[in-house]
Specification:
Blueprint lengths: L1 H10 L6 H8 L4 H9 L2 H11 L13 H8 L1 H15 L6 H27 L5 H10 L2 H8 L14 H12 L3 H12 L3 H9 L2 H4 L9 H23 L20 H4 L8 H4 L3 H14 L1
Helix pairs in contact: 1-11, 3-5, 4-6, 5-6, 6-7, 7-8, 7-9, 7-14, 7-17, 8-14, 9-11, 11-12
């Protein structure tokens, strides 16, 4: 039954734009990204329209893709291009669904950018893979909110990741992470990305002692999950200051196991990193710009 549900969901989504496949597999340098986007006038116009909209708090207009990359960085612009590419081929949705999709993309951009900041501070290997996974972890939410009238994605103000996943599991037997992974496979995206989307939920329901994944791969998963929680709080709970995000708050169900995951190996620096004024300024600047 769950497999039938997944098949029905992913087959309602239009085929990917060619640039989505390229974004999933690379375009990590400013030159590659600029040249690829500039070759598509429609995407260029869409990216510039979005970045100059009220969704961004910019003091001056962005006039070119190169300008956007210089000002916002490759990671954020990749998110904008992915959003533009998906919107170009998206199924028609209601105004209410569009509001939800805008919020999902906002969270995705924040997640990718914050994963980049954390990964740089901790010298995480294969950082471009981490940021791309953080961005594409939104595929499940996009699929669920695009299906029918979005009834499969409860997204009320203040709702938490745990509450939404619980509602999805109850309603259809699978959750946003599984749906996103299935769509990535359906689209023929790299297997590592499809797997990364699904395993990004590991710290939500699996104690550290029972984790089937270890080493650098687990570090990447935890960073993607953590960045997703922070962006979730930004988009759905109005978080504006990272100092208000309590990394080891076990009273929040979605952070209960996370407290153990962030005190192992390379990640053991995370609690102190979240107290460093310089790091907090960088994250808050990102939140201000992207939200």
């Amino acid at each position: 039954k769950e497999q039938q549900t997944l098949k029905r969901l992913v087959e309602t989504m239009p085929p990917p734009h060619p640039i989505q496949l390229r974004l999933a597999g690379g375009l990590d340098t400013p030159e590659e990204l600029k040249d690829t986007v500039a070759s598509d006038a429609g995407l260029t116009a869409s990216v510039l329209k979005t970045v100059n909209s009220a969704a961004f708090s910019l003091s001056a207009p962005i006039t070119s893709v190169q300008h956007a990359i210089t000002y916002l960085g490759v990671t954020v612009v990749k998110g904008l291009v992915m959003q533009a590419a998906m919107s170009e081929r998206a199924v028609k949705v209601s105004p209410a669904q569009q509001v939800r999709l805008d919020k999902i993309w906002k969270a995705a951009r924040c997640s990718s950018a914050i994963a980049q900041l954390i990964g740089q501070e901790l010298a995480v290997p294969s950082l471009s893979v981490v940021t791309t996974n953080a961005l594409l972890s939104s595929l499940g939410d996009i699929t669920l909110v695009s299906f029918n009238d979005g009834e499969l994605l409860p997204l009320t103000e203040g709702s938490t990741l745990f509450e939404r996943v619980e509602a999805q599991q109850t309603a259809i037997g699978v959750n946003t992470f599984v749906v996103g992974s299935a769509l990535a496979q359906h689209w023929g995206l790299p297997a590592s990305l499809a797997s990364g989307i699904e395993t990004a939920s590991l710290p939500l329901g699996v104690p550290l002692a029972e984790s089937p994944i270890q080493g650098d791969a687990l570090d990447q998963i935890v960073i993607i999950y953590l960045a997703g929680l922070i962006s979730d709080a930004i988009a759905h709970e109005g978080l504006t200051d990272i100092a208000d995000f309590k990394l080891e708050d076990r009273s929040r169900i979605e952070r209960f196991y996370l407290a153990d995951y962030v005190r192992r190996g390379r990640l053991a620096r995370l609690p102190s990193l979240f107290e460093e004024p310089g790091f907090k300024r960088k994250v808050n600047r990102t939140i201000l710009t992207l939200s």
